[in-house]
Amino acid sequence: MTSQITGRPERLRQERRVVTEIPGPKSRELQERRVGAVPPGVGSVLPVYVTDAGGGVVVDVDGNSLIDFGSGIAVTGVGNASPRVVERVKEQVERFTHTCFMVAPYESYVAVCEALNRITPGDHEKRSFLVNSGAEAVENAVKIARYATGRQAVVAFDHGFHGRTLLTMTLTAKSMPYKHGFGPYAPEVYRMPPAYAYRWPTGPGNCGPEAAAQAIDQITKQIGPLNVAAVVIEPIQGEGGFIDHAPGFLPAIAEFCQANGIMLIADEVQTGFARTGDMFACDHEGVVPDIIAMAKGIAGGLPLGAVTGRADLMDKVHGGGLGGTYGGNPLACEAALAVLEEIEAGGLVERARWIGETMVPRLRALAEKHDVIGDVRGRGAMIAIELVRGASKEPNPELTAEIVRRCHAAGLLVLTAGTYGNVVRFLPPLVIPEHLLVEGLGILESAFED
Ligand SMILES: *Cc1c(COP(=O)(O)O)cnc(C)c1O
């Protein structure tokens, strides 16, 4: 079979194939070994042990081929072991694997930064540097904002997720499992309500402007704008349940930041790189952040994070103030360059929109039939359903777990999200073949029928 996107032959058969229970006997054996070696604090959504993955499937040790609606949490947008990524990384791994950019630099790092400066929102002069993860990107963005403003307070939002390090865990809204027992947290972090249209008291139509006014009022009264270094926000909240702030909210927050010398940091770690049907989710409403944190979809599965920001801010920090041993590892840089080529050559921004246009009408029809689906939301290939107990909108995490369990058993890999664990989220690889996308939706529909 030939890929609809790359025009190259698919290495793996693009089919759903369930030949054992899921997880199967070999996976269960490996799971037993794991329990003796890995602490339970590191969880797995579905403990099938993977041997292969590509296009729209993940293959396990028992020979099952699962339809992938997760992309390793929005990482393998270009597909797993995407041919361009493999070629570039192979070529690089045979030349050198590491020098440390802070010791002796190499061109690919610079090329990635040039590309990021070009494709991120806004046509002002920018600088970028590379790190290893999303958390590290967010943490560095905050460091720069504090340095550049000389201020300390950082505003984050309810339902937000920004990582698992001390500062990013503090910025994260949800106690269990991310923060519980891990305190004390970093100081000077304040939390505001986001524009959660589905649960906005006066209705979704008023949500954007009212939520912005409320957040701005609280920042003004509780902290004082002149004390605020940065507002850190996910343009669509990921782990919090794909909460896409109501229209008008982000532009109003951006305007408030600009008027008060506050750095707007967009955490585009989950939303970036074509996922939402724009290269970055901020592009949707034309919001131009001062600093952007990126990771996940940037390098097709190789560990890479990035910070891009206004040149005048980024250039302020003293030499040696930013960096890290592995940041911008040459293999990850080659992978990122391949990803950027693939997004363009494969038309993946448009493809993400098409995925949304395919999924959303089917999900809305499903919600018409089942009043336990309270909301269908998201953009592009970042779509979710929120499950409730009917008109009360009371969260329904039990049903969510049951639906996900049935999907897994039928060979569809889906993830949950949401502060109340009542959101099923869909993050298919942008290169998923149409027939697998449609088949996956069918499995989800059957799970609700049952
Ligand atoms: C995943 C995620 C992070 C953390 O990224 P890591 O690479 O796991 O450190 C930060 N912000 C958002 C929005 C994320 O989705």
TrEMBL record:
<dbReference type="GO" id="GO:0042802">
    <property type="term" value="F:identical protein binding"/>
</dbReference>
<dbReference type="Pfam" id="PF00202">
    <property type="entry name" value="Aminotran_3"/>
</dbReference>
<dbReference type="InterPro" id="IPR015421">
    <property type="entry name" value="PyrdxlP-dep_Trfase_major"/>
</dbReference>
<comment type="pathway">
    <text>Amino-acid degradation; 4-aminobutanoate degradation.</text>
</comment>
<keyword id="KW-0032">Aminotransferase</keyword>
<dbReference type="InterPro" id="IPR049704">
    <property type="entry name" value="Aminotrans_3_PPA_site"/>
</dbReference>
<keyword id="KW-0808">Transferase</keyword>
<dbReference type="InterPro" id="IPR015424">
    <property type="entry name" value="PyrdxlP-dep_Trfase"/>
</dbReference>
<protein>
    <recommendedName>
        <fullName>4-aminobutyrate aminotransferase</fullName>
        <ecNumber>2.6.1.19</ecNumber>
        <ecNumber>2.6.1.22</ecNumber>
    </recommendedName>
</protein>
<comment type="similarity">
    <text>Belongs to the class-III pyridoxal-phosphate-dependent aminotransferase family.</text>
</comment>
<keyword id="KW-0663">Pyridoxal phosphate</keyword>
<dbReference type="GO" id="GO:0047298">
    <property type="term" value="F:(S)-3-amino-2-methylpropionate transaminase activity"/>
</dbReference>
<dbReference type="InterPro" id="IPR004632">
    <property type="entry name" value="4NH2But_aminotransferase_bac"/>
</dbReference>
<dbReference type="InterPro" id="IPR050103">
    <property type="entry name" value="Class-III_PLP-dep_AT"/>
</dbReference>
<dbReference type="InterPro" id="IPR015422">
    <property type="entry name" value="PyrdxlP-dep_Trfase_small"/>
</dbReference>
<dbReference type="GO" id="GO:0030170">
    <property type="term" value="F:pyridoxal phosphate binding"/>
</dbReference>
<dbReference type="InterPro" id="IPR005814">
    <property type="entry name" value="Aminotrans_3"/>
</dbReference>
<dbReference type="GO" id="GO:0009448">
    <property type="term" value="P:gamma-aminobutyric acid metabolic process"/>
</dbReference>
<dbReference type="GO" id="GO:0034386">
    <property type="term" value="F:4-aminobutyrate:2-oxoglutarate transaminase activity"/>
</dbReference>
<dbReference type="GO" id="GO:0047589">
    <property type="term" value="F:5-aminovalerate transaminase activity"/>
</dbReference>
